[in-house]
Amino acid sequence: MTPASARLPLPAPLAVLLLAFALAPAATAAVAAATTAPDPRAAVAQAPAPVPPIDAPSPASAGPRLDGCLDGLRATALAAGVPAATWDEHTRGRRRDDSVLQALDHQPEFRTPIWDYLAGLVDAERIADGRARLAEHADLLARLERESGVDAATIVAVWGVESDYGRVFGRKPLLDALATLSCHGRRQAFFRGELFALLKLIGRGDLQAEGLVGSWAGAFGHTQFMPSTYARIAVDGDGDGRRDLVGSIPDALASTANYLRKAGWRSGQAWGHEVRLPAGGALPATGRTQRRPLSSWRAAGIVRIDGGALPADDRPAALLLPAGRAGPAFLVFRNYDAIFSYNAAESYALAIALLSDALRGAPGLQAAWPTDDPGLSRAERRELQTLLAARGHDIGEIDGLLGERSRTAIRLEQARLGREADGRAGQSLLLALREGR
After folding, report:
1. DSSP string for residues in 162-174
2. Three-class SS state of 38
3. From CA 155, how far away is CA 360, in angstroms rounded?
4. How far apart are CA 48 and CA 214, in angstroms?
5. What's the N-to-C CA distance of the chain in angstroms?
6. Cα(78)–Cα(63) distance, rounded to whole angstroms?
7. What is the distance of C-alpha 174 from the center of its chain?
8. How buried is 106 (Cβ within 10 angstroms: 0-12 exposed, 13-18 middle, 19+ buried)?
9. pLDDT tens track, the chain, 437 positions
10. Which of 154, 288, 318, 421 has the least CB density, counted as fewest CB within 10 Å?
11. Dihedral of CA 117/190/171/393: which sign?
């Protein structure tokens, strides 16, 4: 999970790793929770599951060495607690990776239509896999639920969105990425803190540096913690004396539960509900930070879309309209804020919330998104890639990761069909290629 502090305030209704396309984003209480338990991914949006991860540069394309910059940081790093031997061993010979600097300004949670983002993250495959993980780790999850109060479905939903249940950790060599961001681009001070935190984790034996990869922004492991959050929040879930969120599923899931608990999770409460708006008329102010007592929303005519009753108490709640009044509406509570703090993008938080509902057996969204061209699931993205390859396009591996080669092919096909060549993969293009047009 890439931290909110590193994210740019880009436009939304997505306000969604690095996996949504890899298939692959307050109230004072929320602010306090974020202060207590900052976004585990710590700074720049990476949604470990919404946009294809950027490949590590080949040695031939690597930028100049960073030795001069890193030599200048050595004293500061040692003063921050990085062991001298660890610093010298793991910073020598690092080279600039320009791809992470490019990624700094492109965050999928804020750029992707929400119906595309959710189509790839809350799909049949991820739901089925999540249910299998719930069964496989039932004893562990039951223990974590007792200890933290966070329910098993939410823990597993975070795991599913962040790394596709451990399948996709990211492709960037972490030390190269953080060294580059510490020496170039915006927010260098922030990334230097993350680099120092990572090296301290390596120095104390929690992690092995060899083969350590993650997102371009430095998030890594099963549930994509940033190094500073790892140092502060991670726990030893398997009792071996180490906190290994890369090699230990118990450590990773226990740490995720601990993060949400510290972010203010309230046991036994829902994150929120899909709701139906009253026909016509003005609504009170909407948005996650516009909290009002439940009685106020009931008085405004807000009801659950499934016919169930809203909670009878008067807890604070906010109304979310991520695609405007024409799309699905959600009344959200404190637990939604805890999820949001994990990676501060509305689309991301909704992906976790909706996937957790699906893992509990809920039927999914009942209102439709306001589009005539819905997004594609991961299976449909692979089908689209197969059809593009059959037409002679070089798209690389058929993997559901719609990277630049796939998007170039999509633009060419859109132009051939007389459509706007925007590179977006939707149902209408898939149908056209299925029909041989």
Report:
1. HHTTTT---SEEH
2. coil
3. 12
4. 9
5. 40
6. 26
7. 17
8. middle
9. 544 333 322 223 323 333 333 333 333 333 333 334 455 654 443 333 333 333 444 443 467 889 899 999 999 999 999 999 999 999 998 989 999 998 887 654 446 899 999 999 999 999 999 999 999 999 999 999 999 999 999 999 999 999 999 999 998 999 999 999 999 988 999 999 999 999 999 999 999 999 999 999 999 999 999 999 999 999 999 999 999 999 999 999 999 999 999 999 999 999 999 999 998 888 899 999 999 999 999 999 999 999 988 999 999 999 999 999 999 999 999 999 999 999 888 999 999 999 999 999 999 999 999 999 999 999 999 999 999 999 999 999 999 989 899 999 999 999 999 999 999 999 999 999 999 99
10. 421
11. positive
Q: Take residue 381 and report the two structure tokens written for it.
A: 């993205």
SS3 percent helix, strand, coil of the chain, rounded to 5, is 45, 5, 50
Instruction: Tell how strand 303-304 and strand 272-276 pair up.
Output: antiparallel
The half-sphere exposure of 199 on its side-chain side, counting CA atoms within 13 A, is 30
pTM attached to this predicted model: 0.85
Query: What residue has token string 């190269």?
Result: 176
**Nearest alpha-carbon partner for 112 in 164, 170, 49:** 49
**E-only strand ranges, 53-202:** 172-173
